[in-house]
């Protein structure tokens, strides 16, 4: 499996309505992969039922979407990265977000500059704690 959290520039003409600037702090950090095999009586239309977790990414990793350093996540941290997911039969795959760069990186928590006019804590000082962006998910079969 491969995952990318690489963001794109502002696109005022985005056909899906995503016209905002994409902050690197909103990029995917930790995630879970769940699968469902929709055969027989198994219904995969509800993402909260019949899905089984087959992979959870590390909270911090040395490469890929799960890594970021100071002063901010950079493009090499967010490019397409391979993850070894256990073999499983599936007709449906779900990527579940566990954290973004803002909420999952301790280095961006707290207010280190002690400036009362500027809250630099990523979670409380911005809206990035409620937005997550993933650019690509690729799942390969044999």
Q: Can you give a write-up of this model?
A:
The protein is mainly beta and 142 residues long. The chain has one domain (2-10, 22-40, 47-138). Helices cover 8% and strands 22% of the residues. It contains 3 helices and 6 strands; from the N terminus they run βββαββααβ. The chain has helices at residues 75-78, 101-104, 122-125; strands at residues 2-4, 28-36, 52-56, 81-82, 92-100, 136-138. The strands form 2 sheets. It has a 3-stranded antiparallel beta sheet with strand order 4-1-6, with no helix packed on it. Strands 3-2-5 form a 3-stranded antiparallel beta sheet. The protein is elongated, with a radius of gyration of 17 Å. The model has no long low-confidence stretch (mean pLDDT 78).
How many distinct beta strands? 6
> How many domains in all?
1
Biggest sheet architecture: 3 strands, antiparallel
Mean pLDDT: 78
| End-to-end gap | 12 Å
Q: Beta-sheet strand percentage?
A: 15-25%
What overall geometry do the principal axes of the alpha carbons give? elongated
C-alpha Rg (nearest Å): 17 Å
Task: Determine the fraction of residues in helical runs and give it as a percent range.
Answer: under 10%
Secondary structure tally, helices: 3
Question: N-to-C SSE series?
Answer: EEEHEEHHE
For the biggest β-sheet, the strand order reads: 4-1-6
Uncertain residue segments: none
The structure class reads: mainly beta
Secondary structure: elements and pairs:
Blueprint: E1 2-4, E2 28-36, E3 52-56, H1 75-78, E4 81-82, E5 92-100, H2 101-104, H3 122-125, E6 136-138
Antiparallel strand pairs: 1-4, 1-6, 2-3, 2-5
């Amino acid at each position: 499996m491969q995952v990318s959290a690489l963001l794109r520039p502002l696109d005022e003409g985005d056909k899906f309505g995503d016209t905002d600037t994409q902050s690197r702090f909103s990029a995917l950090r930790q995630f879970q992969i769940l699968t469902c095999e929709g055969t027989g009586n198994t219904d995969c239309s509800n993402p909260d039922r019949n899905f089984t977790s087959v992979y959870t990414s590390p909270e911090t990793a040395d490469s890929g979407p799960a890594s970021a350093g100071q002063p901010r996540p950079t493009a090499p941290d967010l490019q397409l990265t391979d993850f070894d997911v256990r073999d499983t039969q599936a007709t449906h795959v779900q990527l579940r977000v566990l954290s973004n760069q803002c909420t999952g990186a301790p280095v961006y928590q707290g207010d280190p500059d002690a400036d009362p006019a500027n809250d630099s804590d990523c979670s409380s000082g911005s809206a990035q704690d409620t937005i997550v962006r993933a650019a690509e998910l690729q799942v390969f079969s044999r």
